[in-house]
Amino acid sequence: MRGRVGGTRPPCREGHPARTSGFPPHAKILDVSANDRPTGQQTKQQSRTYDSAFLKACRREPVPHTPVWFMRQAGRSLPEYLKVREGIPMLESCMRPELVTEITLQPVRRHKVDAAIYFSDIVVPLKAIGLDLDIKPGVGPVVADPIRTRADLARLRDLTPEDVHYVTEAIGMLTGELGDTPLIGFAGAPFTLASYLVEGGPSRSHERTKAMMYGDPQLWADLLDRLAEITSAFLKVQIEAGASAVQLFDSWVGALAPADYRRSVMPASVKVFDAVAGYGVPRIHFGVGTGELLGLMGEAGADVVGVDWRVPLDEAARRVGPGKALQGNLDPAVLFAPTEVVEAKTDEVLAAAKGLEGHVFNLGHGVMPSMDPDALTRLVEYVHTRTTV
Question: 372 catalytic, yes or no?
Answer without folding.
Answer: no
